[in-house]
Amino acid sequence: EAGVAQSPRYKIIEKRQSVAFWCNPISGHATLYWYQQILGQGPKLLIQFQNNGVVDDSQLPKDRFSAERLKGVDSTLKIQPAKLEDSAVYLCASSLDRTDEQFFGPGTRLTVL
Amino acid sequence: GNSVTQMEGPVTLSEEAFLTINCTYTATGYPSLFWYVQYPGEGLQLLLKATKADDKGSNKGFEATYRKETTSFHLEKGSVQVSDSAVYFCALSDQAGTALIFGKGTTLSVSS
């Protein structure tokens, strides 16, 4: 069974530029999560989807971050404009349903200069 | 709100030493508790979990017991190997299936 796929794996941008990350969850998984992991810290939830609806986006900085999950399958996370403090690893995870085990992708490491 | 606190690292051990990584939590109700591991260059993987008080999760020689009276979920292994070198994260999820809340992670380095 294929795991959670993410791309790109690495991205370097200048501050105030925009960037987008893509995630393809495990087939059949209804729940999809985006986490932000800043160096030296544990992952922190940005947004949680159930199929194509948002369950929790309370910690998403909505003035600059946006995410969508069209058709309830893959998802994109966008940052516009990026700030220095957005430098982090962005992790995508999926689970069969909300109370099931979460499987994580390899992450996208973003560096904002 | 819910939170997880785990011991600061790094933890440096010799091969075959005993490992304990402390984890305590704050939560309402009865959360599920997890340990995740992140090996160098790899993604987060579930190591073990426990869903109710007094449950013991175990995997690959690692164990952790859900202690509600002390709100703890300490990770232990009797004899570590070099291949156990990684970052270990304690996490919780509440009964409603919310997203995971992670501790800051503890780096384990095992030398031969």
Blueprint of the fold:
The complex is a heterodimer of chains A (113) and B (112).
Chain A: E1 5-7, E2 10-13, E3 19-24, E4 31-37, E5 44-50, E6 53-56, E7 65-68, E8 75-79, E9 88-95, E10 103-104, E11 108-112
Chain B: E1 3-6, E2 11-14, E3 19-21, E4 23-26, E5 32-38, E6 44-50, E7 56-59, E8 62-65, E9 75-77, E10 86-93, E11 101-102, E12 106-111
Parallel strand pairs in B: 2-12
Antiparallel strand pairs in B: 1-4, 3-9, 5-6, 5-10, 7-8, 8-9, 10-11, 10-12
Structure notes:
The complex is a heterodimer of chains A (113) and B (112). Chain A is globular, with a radius of gyration of 13 Å. With 113 residues, chain A is mostly beta strands. Chain A contains no helices and 11 strands. In chain A, a hairpin with a 7-residue loop joins β9 and β10. Chain A has strands at 5-7, 10-13, 19-24, 31-37, 44-50, 53-56, 65-68, 75-79, 88-95, 103-104, 108-112. Chain B has no helices and 12 strands. The A-B interface holds A 3-4, 31, 33, 35, 40-45, 48, 56, 91, 93, 97-99, 101-102, 104-107 and B 4, 42-46, 49, 89, 91, 93, 96-105.
Give me the Rg of chain B, rounded.
13 Å
Question: Structural class of chain B, please?
Answer: mainly beta
DSSP, total strands of chain A: 11
Order of helices and strands of chain A: EEEEEEEEEEE
Number of helices of chain B: 0
The first-to-last residue Cα distance of chain A is: 37 Å
Query: Mean pLDDT across all residues of chain A, rounded?
Result: 94
Q: List SSEs of chain B in N-to-C order.
A: EEEEEEEEEEEE
Bin the helical content of chain A. Answer: under 10%
Number of strands of chain B: 12
**Number of helical segments with 4 or more residues of chain A:** 0
User: Largest sheet of chain B at a glance?
Assistant: 6 strands, mixed
Assign an overall shape of chain A.
globular
The rounded distance between the terminal residues' Cα atoms of chain B is: 41 Å
Percent helix of chain B: under 10%
Structure classification of chain A:
mainly beta
Strand content of chain B: over 45%
Q: So what's the oligomer here? A: heterodimer
Query: Tell me, what's the shape of chain B?
Result: globular
Largest interface: A-B, 24 and 20 residues
The whole-number mean of residue pLDDT values of chain B reads 94
